[in-house]
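Hey, can you fold this one?
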Amino acid sequence: MLTKLRAKIWIEKSTYHWVKVDAEALDTLSFGLGLVRIAPGGTLHFEQVRVNDEIWLPSRILIRADARLALLKKLRAEIDVAYRDYRKFQSDSRIVEFQEN
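Sure. Predicted structure:
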């Protein structure tokens, strides 16, 4: 499947972590035994950001594609998802002694 894609990947120099990916389908991509087929020209744009100087999390995903479901239904889709305002989850915990009767 990778031979049917052209992609450009941006890597951060200090951590060698990939920050952004742009990919384009050069040929028809099939998934699920051919039930879903992506036409040539479909694109994927994915970006990540480092949050709290700890972890890399998605910041944006953009997908544009023409697809065919089960060779019956044609679909044209543009999906743009943006992630923001990440907050660190915090909780308090304590160890409780358990006594059997």
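The chain is about 0% helix and 55% strand. Let me know if you want another pass with a different chain boundary.
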